[in-house]
Design a protein that fits this description.
Radius of gyration: 27 Å
Oligomer: single chain
Helix content: 40-55%
Number of strands: 13
Number of helices: 18
Strand content: 5-15%
Length: about 550
């Protein structure tokens, strides 16, 4: 990289002094008047890349370019504060567009997640001037992966928010990368792109940056070509089984909601309410599900899935509800996956969120408790997180419930078909179901997500849609798909989150290298935002 010299006399006005923070830059930083419009544009574009219903895939590639550019100019403290506020705005916007509601829990979570997602900009700003150019390019993408990994592993939000991979749902060739790196590989590629674009932006001539541009372009093309080839030339080829997802008739569900709305209080109050006021409505929903199961079994379905909380029942009547489902499974000769929302007078949860798999003999193969109740809205005691797997003539069946699928670690199981009973709402049903496609590609199994009050979809192990149904566009939501009965072992299956751990290690190594490397006086001035008199946003060395 080239360096430039200047005299003390022209320090405040020379073109060489008007630089960004990247070593060797010879292009002026944006004038002060453009810094905040750039921040505003980046923050606005970021609103369209938060993993919500209004996402635009290209926005996820654009906003890091603008925010990274802003972060590399001006003073460190004020710049990071503005970037934190931009990330808070994005998280709050996600709460709004997803209709998740505003409460101390959700707003506190938004602030905390925004802080974690600001760290990559801070590390880039502090280290990019102190490292060799090729090392500097690794700081931001490695830190982005590290932030995503920490959010997924150490917070109750999993991959529901903060994952750039979720914004690329429609790009199937790119999506195949997650079968190797998990979702983190896509975040790395997007962040790496932002670093390369900024390098080009900051450098006066082509020669110093061409190797970085060619390397990134080759890597991106290799990912897209390999992903496209995986889809085109390596189809599953496995036998298929007819799977049906059943949701009760809309009229029955509305009547049940009306009956429950008359009970003042939470789950404990429902459990203690006179049964005569609730039983008829609850039984009507159960009867609708049983009738739909019988209908789809007669049409050829061998596996039938009900949505999360498909049957709501008082604890005293739970056994009767299960017995009715066992009878139907025996009569129809099918594997029936049912999901119950049980109301109990026993605290602290006052109920359970569970799913059961019943075989064609009427035997209950498992009873699974939801491992990740939604923070702030589901009081259930979490299950043990052990995903059940059963070997059947139609492959190995496994089961989680709704929000569990936002935690990649627990979804890495040896299965051929993953059943995911779910319950969303109009504003969040589609993006939440789309995120589940990542799990299918990561672990190499087909995934059937039957979503009450949302979008039900069946995916194959490449993330391709086999069938989909929107609850809000039909009075009888039934999803029928021919699902491959044999999955595939992926690299991600075998190595797990190795890529994310490598990125964490890279961040630590780069941080250590940057700290140990002595800074020149000009670098110290640049890190302080150039307090020697240059206009805001203009960095000097």
């Amino acid at each position: 990289m080239r360096t430039h010299t200047q005299t003390r006399d022209d320090r405040g006005t020379s073109e060489a002094g008007r630089r960004t923070g990247h070593p060797g830059s010879g292009v002026p930083a944006p004038p002060a008047r453009w810094r905040y419009p750039m921040l505003a544009l980046g923050a606005a574009v970021q609103l369209l890349a938060v993993g919500g219903r209004w996402d635009i895939a290209a926005a996820a590639w654009l906003f890091p370019v603008l925010l990274l550019r802003f972060g590399r100019t001006g003073r460190v403290a004020s710049g990071m504060l503005w970037l934190w506020l931009a990330n808070i705005a994005a998280a709050v916007f996600w709460l709004f567009e997803s209709a998740l509601g505003f409460s101390p829990v959700t707003l506190g979570g938004a602030v905390a997640l925004a802080a974690l997602l600001t760290v990559p900009y801070l590390l880039d700003r502090l280290l990019v001037r102190r490292l060799r150019p090729w090392m500097a390019l690794l700081v931001y993408p490695s830190a982005v992966v590290a932030a995503e990994f920490v959010i997924t592993q150490l917070t109750p939000f999993g991959g529901a928010y903060g994952s750039l991979a979720a914004t690329q749902y429609g790009n199937l060739p790119l999506l195949q990368l997650v079968s190797v790196t998990g979702s983190y590989g896509i975040g790395f590629l997007i962040a790496w792109c932002a670093g390369v674009v900024n390098l080009v932006w900051e450098t006066a001539s082509w020669r110093p940056v061409r190797r970085a541009v060619f390397t990134y372009t080759a890597a991106l093309l290799a990912v897209l070509l390999a992903g496209g080839a995986r889809i085109a030339f390596f189809p599953s080829g496995a036998p298929t089984v007819r799977v049906a997802g059943i949701t009760a008739d809309t009229s029955a569900l509305r009547a049940q909601k009306a009956a429950l709305s008359h009970v003042i209080g939470g789950r404990r109050s429902v459990a203690a309410a006179p049964p005569a006021g609730l039983e008829p409505a609850m039984n009507a929903v159960a009867d609708s599900l049983l009738a739909g199961t019988r209908r789809e079994a007669a049409a050829g379905a061998k596996i039938v899935v009900w949505p999360e909380g498909g049957v709501r029942t008082l604890e005293a009547h739970e056994r009767a509800a299960i017995a009715a489902a066992q009878h139907e499974a025996r009569r129809s000769g099918i594997y029936l996956e049912i999901s119950l929302s049980v109301y109990s007078t026993t605290g602290p949860a006052y109920g359970r969120d569970e799913a059961l798999l019943i075989d064609p003999h009427g035997t209950v193969l498992w009873t699974y408790q939801k491992a990740h109740p939604v923070p702030g809205s589901e009081p259930f005691t979490p299950g043990d997180g052990k995903v059940p797997v059963a070997t059947t003539p139609y492959g190995r069946l496994a089961n989680v419930i709704c929000y569990d699928a936002d935690f990649p670690g627990m979804m890495r199981v040896p299965a051929d078909i993953m059943l995911v009973p779910s319950h969303d709402w109009a504003e969040y049903g589609r993006p939440h179901t789309q995120k589940a496609a990542l799990r299918a590609v990561e672990s190499g199994y087909a995934l059937v997500r039957q979503d009450a009050e949302g979008v039900a979809t069946a995916y194959d192990n490449r993330g391709q849609v086999l069938a989909t149904t929107d609850y809000f566009t039909t009075g009888r939501q039934t999803t029928v798909a021919y699902v491959p009965t044999r999955g595939a072992t992926t690299i991600y299956d075998r190595i797990g989150d190795t890529f994310a751990w490598l990125c964490l290690a890279a961040v630590a190594a780069l941080l250590a290298t940057g700290v140990l490397r002595a800074r020149s006086p000009r670098e110290r001035m640049a890190a302080q935002g150039d307090p020697t008199g240059a206009p805001a946003g203009e960095m000097r060395y």
